[in-house]
Amino acid sequence: MKNLIYIIIGLVFISCEDQFLKKLPNPEAEDQISVYCVLFADQAQIKAELYHSKKIFGPVDTEFEDYDPVTDAVVKIIGPNETITLEYNSTLEEYQFNDSIDFQKAGDTYYLEITTVDGKKITSQTTIPFNTIEGIKMDYDSIPVNPRFGISEMLFESSFQDMPGEGHYYQLLGRYSSGFGTEQIQYETPLYLADDKDRDGESIDQTGRGYKIEYDNTLDFYMVLQSISRDLYLYNRSMNSYANFTFDPDNPFTEPTIIHTNIEGGLGVFGSSNQKVFNFTK
Fold it and tell me: In the sheet where 151-161 sits, what is the strand order?
């Protein structure tokens, strides 16, 4: 009787294991197309990058690994009044259209259509946001960190007024002359991102850091303030999380970063931006 029970338990386990294995991802499953394309209001060029993704299973290179570009797709962007086709640049490994200054306009919706040689259809859409911000306040403090060599740490403070109405998303990039050359202001995350959730119309403040040589008494810096689409905001926010993610093999609760995508039939992002540049000298 006891042996019969063991046999029944074994058969149940084998059956469950078989069902479980059927639900596992197929190591031979096709890769997907990864897309990165951002439209910029009133800019003359459009770029799109297409790469083959890596399979879930298979050899993994722990160093930086090159991804195979998709070189033979048909990439189209459909606007309100015309459709443009991007041409592949083999040197830069990207698709380009170089006369789009009258094509990319704030408030308009655009549709991305990609067709691969094996018949895959990849689509997405984005609406270029408005950017009515008239100014941004900027200041900094200098703290000596190496007096012998005249090197100081710069603490940057900037603020701007959120545009009226909810649902705005921002990205901020700052650069300054440091004595070492032109440097990027460093924020807590690789890209400084903000939204107006629960602070519609309020001031959005941020701080950043940098270093300069003291003998260069004049500091020139500029800020690029972008009003970006929601999908681009979510994509960049997830990429910030990925960049700051540290895998801990001793922590069983460590979770992977889920990268946001708005690409139907593939991965990545089709987003849009409307940027303004503000220059300062102090």
Answer: 136-146, 151-161, 203-213
Residue 171, number of CB atoms within 10 A of its CB: 19
Using DSSP bridges, classify how beta strands 74-78 and 109-115 pair: parallel, antiparallel or unpaired: antiparallel
Domain segments of the chain as ranges? 33-129+230-272, 136-228
Say yes or no to pLDDT of 233 above 60.
yes
Task: Check if the beta carbon of residue 172 is closer than 8 Å to that of residue 204.
Answer: no
**CB count, 10 Å around CB of 195?**
18
pLDDT in tens, 70-102: 999 999 999 999 999 999 999 999 999 998 778
Beta bridge partners of 225: 172, 276
Domain 136-228, CATH number (from 3.40.50.720, 3.40.50.10860, 3.30.870.10, 2.60.40.10): 2.60.40.10
For residue 212, name the pLDDT band (cuts at 50, 70, 90): confident
